[in-house]
Specification:
Largest sheet: 6 strands, antiparallel
CATH topology of one domain: Jelly Rolls
CATH class of one domain: Mainly Beta
Helix content: 40-55%
Strand content: 15-25%
CATH architecture of one domain: Sandwich
Number of helices: 23
């Protein structure tokens, strides 16, 4: 009946009819869809294939796999999707049973879909297929095992990787091995299969493949082996180990990479290590900003090429540190780095300004103009100087402060007549002044000799007809 409906429909309406029949989700529609597979119009054939997702039975597994293996791209995609989604009873077992005796191209599609469907019934066959003679089947079985397997599959994937016929197969096995190892629980056992293999296979090619896979897992237990391999043995193995450390998902290898970059005489090894440093320094973490800025300075100091230094600048721009700011400003002097270093400088400046809160005894809503980086704007008392006027900076965290620089701007002589500067941790315990004195011009440098605190309070202690104004306030933090 339904097949007759399809045959009666005009070519232009066949695809629409098949979509409408598919919406019924009724196995009785299967004859119409089988007719649709023979349609002249590609849209009708694709609609028929898509409909089989809902009403196919075991008899349709091989035809769908055949279309997936040989059809044009659109029909292939539809056939693969239908095969991946069919849900008739015992569908996985039917796919598995169809592999035996199937043509090689069809067998390839069936092995692929076992992985996509995560059909655990297929694990024994996939383990065996990883070592079959047919190279294409081997490669697909390795990939499917990587999607589906767990700890039990690690050994066969190690064997497949170490016996691979070519680089593509070896890399696929390494990726699959890392995938199954990442599924091992508890997490501290994820590196165990590869570490065990490293203890057995001591030849350079095997070690190189195993170390590369170890790096892909990103399990902390593998770091020791990678660190050792990165600093001893033949140069090719060392480079693979350094590359694995450089691609590590966290910053744990950072200091190892820094040490390699400092000590190695091999240019490639140094570049690999420094690229890893650039990536890992840019990762978020608990490292204090000044310490991170110092590491940036150390790493950049090892480089001669502007092209390599540029790799570090986006990460440097995310470090909220006066030391990072000073480094960016120093790099701006290099014409080849000026553009990128300026972007980093501007980013750091915004971070520093955003992290600092300022307030004042009067016109506190304008206090931020003193730290906006623009000399043409300013905070001002708007009235004559009088004892007790104050300006306060909250650094949000304790810092060691070497000096303050105040610039009153171009309008008048608005520096404080007399001042006291306090640096303290707690507003309830301000303590004694860290510095005091008188100003003698529009700019004022106040040494603070590394005084430590979260808050800086500047008190104006004199009387003067002029206003007290701050167009630019800069803080020099101690380099310790």
């Amino acid at each position: 009946m339904f097949a007759g409906l399809f045959e009666a429909a005009s070519e232009g309406n066949q695809a629409a009819l098949l979509h409408a029949l598919a919406a019924r989700n009724d196995p009785a529609m299967l004859p119409a869809f089988l007719k649709g597979l023979q349609a002249k119009e590609a849209a009708a054939r694709i609609a028929a294939v898509q409909a089989l997702e809902f009403c196919a039975d075991a008899s349709m597994v091989v035809p769908l796999a055949s279309m997936a293996a040989s059809a044009d791209p659109a029909e292939q995609s539809a056939a693969r999707q239908a095969l991946e989604r069919v849900s008739f009873q015992n569908a996985d077992q039917a796919i598995l049973a169809a592999i035996d005796g199937a043509a090689p191209a069809v067998r390839l599609e069936l092995i692929r879909v076992l992985g996509v469907r995560r059909a655990e019934e297929g694990l024994p066959l996939l383990r065996a297929a990883c070592l079959w003679e047919d190279a294409a089947i081997r490669l697909q079985a390795i990939k499917s095992l990587g999607e589906l397997g767990g700890e039990s599959e690690a050994a066969v994937l190690i064997e497949a990787m170490l016996s691979a016929a070519n680089a593509e197969e070896r890399d696929a096995a390494g990726v699959a091995l890392a995938a199954v190892c990442r599924r091992i629980e508890p997490a501290n056992r994820r590196a165990a299969p590869i570490l065990g293999a490293l203890a057995i296979h001591t030849d350079a090619p095997s070690r190189q493949s195993l170390l590369s896979a170890l790096g892909r897992i990103g399990a902390g237990e593998g770091l020791g082996a990678l660190r050792q391999a990165a600093q001893t043995g033949d140069m090719d193995t060392r480079k693979i180990a350094v590359r694995a450390l450089a691609d590590w998902p966290g910053a744990a290898p950072l200091f190892t990479l820094m040490d390699i970059a400092k000590k190695s005489d091999d240019t490639v090894l140094r570049v690999l290590a420094l690229r890893g440093c650039a990536a890992q320094l840019a990762m978020p973490g608990a490292m204090p900003p000044d310490a991170k800025a110092d590491l940036y300075a150390a790493a950049i100091g090892l480089l001669d090429s502007a092209e390599e230094i540029v790799r570090f600048l986006p990460g440097l721009g995310a470090v909220r540190s006066a030391r990072a700011l000073a480094l960016a400003e120093e790099l701006m002097k290099n014409p080849d780095l000026k553009q990128e270093a300026t972007l980093a400088r501007n980013s750091i400046r915004k971070l520093l300004d955003a992290a600092i809160d300022v307030s004042a005894s009067v016109n506190s809503d304008k206090a931020a103009l003193a730290i906006d980086g623009k000399r043409e704007t300013r905070w001002t008392t708007g009235a004559s100087q009088a004892p007790g006027q104050w300006f306060q900076i909250d650094l949000k965290e304790p810092r060691a402060i070497e000096a303050l620089a105040l610039d009153a701007g171009d309008q008048g002589n608005d520096s404080p007549a007399q001042y006291e500067v306090y640096v303290f941790l707690d507003k309830a315990a301000i303590g004694k002044p860290a510095a005091s004195g008188q100003s003698k011009g529009k700019t004022l440098a106040i040494p603070l000799a590394g005084a430590e605190g979260r808050f800086i309070l500047i008190k104006q202690m004199g009387a003067l007809k002029n206003y007290w104004s701050i167009a630019e306030l800069k803080i020099e933090f101690s380099q310790k």
